[in-house]
Write a structure and sequence with these properties.
Elements: E1 2-6, E2 11-17, E3 23-29, E4 36-37, E5 43-52, E6 58-64, E7 70-76, E8 79-84, E9 87-96, E10 102-108, E11 114-119, E12 124-128, E13 137-142, E14 148-153, E15 160-166, E16 169-172, E17 182-188, E18 194-199, E19 206-212, E20 215-220, E21 228-233, E22 239-244, E23 250-255, E24 261-263, E25 274-281, E26 287-292
Antiparallel strand pairs: 1-2, 2-3, 3-4, 5-6, 6-7, 7-8, 9-10, 10-11, 11-12, 13-14, 14-15, 15-16, 17-18, 18-19, 19-20, 21-22, 22-23, 23-24, 25-26
């Protein structure tokens, strides 16, 4: 399975694979458990929980009857609620803040194009794109101060850039120069520090970045690596993600506020696996990571 989200109560959410080739969303009160799986009331056989807030409300997506489409959901107590779509077939939710606002993407009516959305419990709002015709966007993270970040195609539909969705406008956060012309924002804290990654045109290499006050900073990689990705940031500015190391394999990393990347495998003991990606960090510094034998 995979763990994707973590709140300040140290509840973890993610995706657990079954023996029949399907998946169920789960929650897990760390460190003792037990794992609780979500009943997919949308009618399908697959579900993923991607995030959880401090009220222990989770967000994610699940398939509907016949596996015909995926719909974003919220899950509280034992109730899965279908958020719906912006008129198209599919939607997925990636983040939820403590105010209960959920963000993600949805297809549009009669189209394969998708736009970032926010859902406040009653209204699914289209957050738009950077402009152009047939362009796509997605919201990937939201802070408790309602800053929403993700990505959007540019107006010419020739590249994808990290974006900030705020007050009905979409701001282009730019790129890491000519070598890394594509970018996505994957995390944001209440102070407005944004993290993500910028990639080469073909996507073969990427570098993690932090962004603050109009400046995108290259975070580099762990020693010997060529690519890195930042996925989350807490209120103190600690950042987690994954980076290649010598030999090309990926290791999970953590970077303290203003510090340098540290291989998470060097910070833990008694773990009989290699931590390959750190996906979330809470304000106590607890980290959710994925291991691989």
């Amino acid at each position: 399975g995979n763990a994707y989200g973590l709140n300040n109560n140290s509840w973890v959410v993610g995706q657990q694979f079954t023996g029949t080739g399907t998946s169920v969303a789960f929650s897990f009160p760390a460190p003792s458990g037990p794992i609780a799986t979500f009943t997919n009331s949308l009618g399908g056989s697959n579900a993923v929980a991607s995030a959880i807030n401090d009220s222990d409300t989770a967000a994610g997506w699940a398939t509907n009857t016949g596996e015909a489409a995926t719909h974003a959901f919220s899950f509280s107590g034992s109730i899965m609620t279908d958020i719906g779509t912006l008129g198209g077939a599919n939607s997925q939710a990636f983040a939820i803040n403590n105010g209960g606002t959920i963000v993600g993407y949805s297809n549009l009516t009669g189209s394969s194009a998708f736009h970032a959305f926010s859902f406040n419990g009653s209204t699914l709002a289209d957050l738009g794109t950077l402009g152009g015709t047939g362009t796509n966007s997605s919201a990937l993270a939201i802070s408790n101060s309602d800053l929403v970040v993700g990505f959007s195609d540019n107006p010419a539909n020739t590249s994808t850039h990290a974006a900030l969705f705020s007050g009905g406008t979409v701001a282009d956060l730019g790129e890491l120069g000519d070598a890394y012309p594509k970018s996505e924002a994957t995390g944001v804290n209440n102070a407005g520090t944004i993290v993500g990654y910028a990639s080469s045109s073909g996507g073969s290499t990427a570098h993690a970045f932090s962004y603050k006050n109009g400046y995108m900073k290259d975070m580099g990689t762990l020693t010997g690596g060529t690519s890195s990705y930042a996925y989350a940031i807490n209120k103190y500015g600690a950042i987690v993600g994954r980076s290649q190391v010598t030999g090309g394999t990926y290791h999970a990393f953590v970077r303290g506020g203003g510090g340098s990347m540290t291989d998470l495998n060097l910070q833990v003991s008694g773990v009989a696996t290699t931590l390959v990606s750190a996906n979330a960090i809470n304000d106590s510094g607890h980290i959710v990571a994925i291991g691989a034998d």
